[in-house]
Design goal:
By secondary structure, the protein is an alpha+beta fold. The chain has one domain: 2-Layer Sandwich (Alpha-Beta Plaits), CATH 3.30.70.920. A hairpin with a 6-residue loop joins strand 2 and strand 3. It is globular.
């Protein structure tokens, strides 16, 4: 599965979150951006279960992450 995960981060934590997310299995690219959301992440996982684990069990539990929004690609 391919998806974009948009992350809102507490002030002062953007670089920490980008660094941590970039090291996670399945993450292909992570960028800090101006405005909201603060971080755009492109991920590829073998299936929905792995995507759920990546977003819910790993990304959302990072210090500084306030909110995520996941957009699964259709083509």
């Amino acid at each position: 599965m391919r998806a974009y995960v948009l992350i809102n981060v507490r002030p002062g934590k953007v670089r920490d979150v980008v660094g941590a997310v970039s090291q996670m299995e399945g993450v292909r690219h992570a960028d800090a951006c101006w405005g909201l959301p603060d971080v755009f992440v492109y991920v590829e996982t073998p299936n929905e279960k792995d995507l759920n684990q990546l977003v819910i069990d790993k990304i959302q539990k990072l210090e500084g992450v306030e909110r995520t929004e996941t957009h699964i690609t259709v083509e």
